[in-house]
TrEMBL record:
SUPFAM superfamilies: Cytochrome c
The protein's name: Cytochrome c, mono-and diheme variants
An annotated Gene Ontology molecular function: metal ion binding
Presence of keyword Cell cycle: no
Gene that this polypeptide is encoded by: cycG
Keyword entries, A-Z: Heme, Iron, Metal-binding
Domain Cytochrome c: 38-146, 187-293
Species name: Allgaiera indica
PROSITE patterns: CYTC
Amino acid sequence: MRRLLVLLASLLLLGLVAFWYVTRPDPLPPRAMAGLTGDPQHGKLVFWAGGCASCHAAKGATGADLLKLGGGRALVTAFGTFHVPNISPDPKDGIGDWTLQDFGNALLRGLRPDGAHLYPAFPYTSYNKMTRQDVADLWAYLRTLPAIAKPDKPHDLRFPFNIRRLVGGYDFLYASKAWVVTGELTPQEMRGRYLAEAVTHCGQCHTPRNMLGAMETSRWLAGAPNPDGQGRIPNITPAHLKWSTTDIEAFLTTGLTPDYDSAGGQMADVVQNLAHLPKSDIAAIAAYLKKVPPVK
């Protein structure tokens, strides 16, 4: 009996050590962002490509109000309600007292400045493929925007999803930095992959998810339930999206389909954001979509 108790205690201890190791925060090396000088003009393009305003500005915001990133939107999910945070340069309510290293840890590792895990409702599982220079450029641009004094609301999540430490296990399983579409790609297609899989994070809406909310990359861009609860986000793999690259480029810049329908819902915001990008980037995304494996 004593040997059995010792064995059980040892197994429990090993389990706790394994849990602690798997769920631990994994920050960037201390000087990972050192020596980088952000270019706010390029950061502005990263800002629009990343769709920052679509979540962090007030719902229905237009014009200059899109640059007021006080957060506050409620994202209702099966795990509970997430409240979008203030990412304006306000030093008290926003991220004005963060460093570039803090910002890099948020985008590339999904961590807050205090080392706690961010929830993957923030798409760091896509942003983690961004270059550090793009992160620095985005940071430089965000610091030029208006400071908004608006405190964050706490998330309202069901147990056990309200335990942040568990997000480390999610990251261990699903926060891959590997590209989904591989093989021989042209420089244009690689640029499109970088934009679509990392910065514009197309998969976050267009890819179905498993029970833990992780993207099922085996069905990459094959369509998914609308997170707003109405209808579905469409399949945009070549199995369903039969448009030419010219048609795709036109849709991404004007919101008009080849049969003169128009983008609605969240996609209208995406089109509004992508309109700020150079034509070469839009063409790169279109070329990439043609290389995505077809999924019926």
